[in-house]
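Hi all, long-time lurker, first post. I run a small reading group and we've been trying to get comfortable going from sequence to structure in the token notation. Rather than ask abstract questions, I figured I'd post a concrete chain and ask someone more experienced to write out its structure so we can walk through it together at our next meeting. Sequence below, copied exactly:
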Amino acid sequence: MNIASWLERSARITPDVGALFLGADCVATYGAFLDRALRVAGWLAAQGVQPGDRVGLFMKNLPEYLIAQYGVWALGGVVVPINAKLHGREAAWILDNAGASLCFTSVGLHEAVSEVSETPCLNVSSSDWAAILDTAPTKTLTRRTPDDLAWLFYTSGTTGRPKGVRITHRMLQAMALSYFADVDEVTSEDTALYAAPLSHGAGIYNLMHVLKGARHVMPPSGGFDEAEIFDLARHHGRVHMFCAPTMVKRMTDVAKATGKTGEGLRTIVYGGGPMYVADIVEAVDHFGPIFVQIYGQGECPMCITALSRAEVCDRSHPNWQARLASVGRAQSVVELAIGDAAGVPLPPGEVGEIMARGDAVMPGYWQNTQATAKTIVNGWLMTGDMGTLDADGYLTLKDRSKDMIISGGTNIYPREVEEALLLHPSVREVSVVGRPHPDWGEDVVAFVVTIGDMDTSALDAHCLDQIARFKRPKAYFAISELPKNNYGKVLKTELRKMLEEM
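-- Answer (accepted) --
Happy to help. Here is the structure in token form:
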């Protein structure tokens, strides 16, 4: 089944209902949404793009994003969503690794990637996009099997290079149906508001809202602005959002400071990083029972566990605090276990690696059999995250392996930052760790062994030329020697202790 058939279904049932909005303004009904997607598919076919070919989306949150995405799917192509925060060189690497036929871009990002990439790029804000929408639409959706690739999502790894997660039509269908069963209901009266990047979890949640014929709203700011969100929620009503924990905290702080009640907000799904119990308690106390927590990875998108709104709001159960500190129970489409180093399931209460299997788990990484073999073991997805399961099935995260840093809900992998810094001629050695931050969860800091005196301004400028701004260290600490064990491995635990003592 081609996942684009869900758009076709809604367009046939409610062709005149508003589908795509920029702020308060409707820019396409469901009938127009489908028509434009089919025109994109027709244009792609005229360019020689074939079913199974990859097409990049390096765009900010715009209505054109979803039109292009469904156009690629209608043709039977594979969407390669690229984080709009990435540096142009990083986006170019992804396009090259994916073997993308072309890439749709938006203002600002177009210039950043087109200057360094050999992949043809088309700016959706240019006259070229208008010409695409004048192309004759394709008449039918290209048939896809459940195991055909739909999304190629790049997630960073400890090797310093992103890995392409192969996400199939079956996985997307399983994720969406599990959402209805375990996370939230959706009706045609609802509104999906995209204040977090469409390239990630917020964007993947468009599927269930398309299937149900709900509204899709892009903030005119193109990003996260608390006042704008409150205004749009009040205007549209019944708003659903996906938020990183830091976004929830910021919304709570602004609402309390300005007297906003969150009128119009129906559901906020939060995930992507640790949420302190005190913060979610404060958010529920102010906004009411609108929060649901999920835990997932690109390799099992958005659907490993869920903590329902009733559980997030519960203050009467004897274990309510422990449950609120958890990430919930297994969603309906996965089997969940805690395993030892060999992947053997452990009894309840034991700490081990979180493992998941089911229809929502990826078949493997793109052209990376070695990484796939390490991550998919006997059918289990080895998440790399450590945790425990209690007797009632609640999963609590204990630690993150691979030293990943989560800042504002965005994954940052130290090795990638370290490799960028090591390209600077004054850097002899470097180790990057996360430092607790009251608003962002963590921020990035670097311990640097330099040749001569350390010039932080030069290191900053170097990083901005190599990697995305949000990955740049927020502090540099000169150190004469990195702490290491007998095998020469840097002891990041010692660096974290040094941070605690500063």
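A couple of things your group might point at:
The two ends are 56 Å apart (CA to CA).
The chain has two domains: 5-389, 404-501.
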